[in-house]
Design goal:
This protein is α+β, with helices and mostly antiparallel strands and 356 residues long. Helix content is 37%, strand content 20%. Among the domains are: 33 residues, no CATH class; 137 residues, Protein Transport Mog1p, Chain A.
Length: 356
């Protein structure tokens, strides 16, 4: 069938000839929903379309933004129900006797084999009178007397316990006061703190200072008491390859000092410290004539003599009590000067100083 012949137009509306449905009704309804017409007419009444209201201009700085309270959950409904209170509370027993309980206990059937029912009353002098035998009926006056004695005993027991604990506490306090030594410890601690010389100095610094002091003291002792160490130190300071001279009999090595390119050794007498002579070793390789000129000096009254021993030449000079000797040792020149020395002692001192 042709598509155009299946459409019928009635009053300007197009209908499907087969199904009778209005063609384009769905599109028209959708269009009306999206954009309604200006004049809606129902039964001759026309409604004007409402104008869109203009939004009020508000500044964000003028508004006070506060969080709104949540309305999705109702706290009073969803909160945890309160715990049900128990109505049956434990009743506190008073000091008044419970007659109902006493009557129930009295009606309890008792076996004939049981000798006693209830608590045993406390009595130090419990005799045969207070003991119940099998089948014996205890009289009421006797029961009342026993009950009264038990109540009096129980009333005395707390006071006895209190007195015992009080005496024990007193003994503990006396013992603690006698053995207290905290004040003594504080006194000892304060005394120890006063005795500390390096209280506020770190331990490593104290140890370093102690080691440095001990080392300095040891070097000082070695310098004065060990001649070899003193000579080595003086020779290093003077830049001279010096050797330690051997003292003559009755003398010992004394202080050793470093001069300008020379090392001077003082040799003292063991009996008289004022009696001494010096040995000076310096870098100067002089011939024998120069040694004679050095030894004689400028005084014309000096007696100068030359002594040759093997390959060594010793120049001796005497001027009153002062004697001088000179010799060569390798690249060094050694001079011996002393007072109260005769020629033999002066020559021996020069030989001991100049020997290799």
């Amino acid at each position: 069938m042709n598509k155009a012949t299946s459409i019928i137009e009635i009053n300007g509306n197009r209908y499907d000839a087969v199904s009778g449905q209005l063609i384009g009704a769905v599109k028209q309804a959708a269009r009306q929903a999206i954009k309604p017409t200006q004049g809606l007419s129902i039964d001759g009444f026309t409604r004007q379309a409402a104008r869109a209201k203009a939004h009020a201009k508000r500044s964000v700085y003028e508004l006070q933004r506060t969080p709104e309270r949540s309305k999705t959950l109702m706290r009073s409904v969803v909160k945890k129900p309160e715990r049900a209170r128990s109505e049956s509370k434990t009743k506190i027993r008073g000091l008044s006797p419970d007659y109902a309980r006493a009557s129930r206990a009295k009606n309890v059937p008792r076996d004939a084999k049981v000798q006693r029912f209830g608590l045993l009353p406390f009595s130090r002098n419990a005799g045969s009178e207070s003991e119940a035998k099998s089948g014996e009926i205890i009289n009421k006056p006797h029961v009342k007397a026993l009950a009264h004695h038990s109540a009096a005993t129980t009333a005395l027991v707390p006071s006895i316990i209190t007195n015992a604990s009080h005496h024990k506490l007193e003994r503990l306090l006396d013992y603690a006061m006698a053995q207290a030594d905290a004040h003594k410890k504080e006194l000892d601690k304060s005394i120890k703190n006063r005795r500390k010389l390096f209280k506020h100095i770190p331990r490593w610094l104290v140890v370093s200072l102690l080691v440095l002091g001990l080392t300095s003291a040891a070097l000082f002792v070695v310098w004065h008491k060990v001649p070899q160490a003193s000579l080595k130190l003086a020779a290093t300071k003077a830049h001279v390859n010096a050797s330690l001279p051997t003292p003559i009999s009755g003398y010992k090595v004394g202080p050793i000092t470093a001069l300008d390119n020379a090392v001077r050794t003082t040799i003292q007498s063991t009996s008289d410290s004022s009696n001494k002579y010096t040995v000076t070793e310096q870098v100067s390789n002089q011939p024998a004539a120069s040694l004679v000129a050095n030894a004689s000096g400028t005084n014309q009254g000096q007696q100068v003599q030359t002594v040759q021993d093997k390959d060594k030449i010793y120049v001796l000079s005497q001027d009153n009590n002062k004697g001088t000797a000179a010799c060569t040792k390798g690249a060094n020149t050694i001079s011996v000067e002393g007072e109260k020395l005769n020629v033999a002692q002066l020559l021996e001192a020069a030989k001991n100083a100049c020997k290799n």
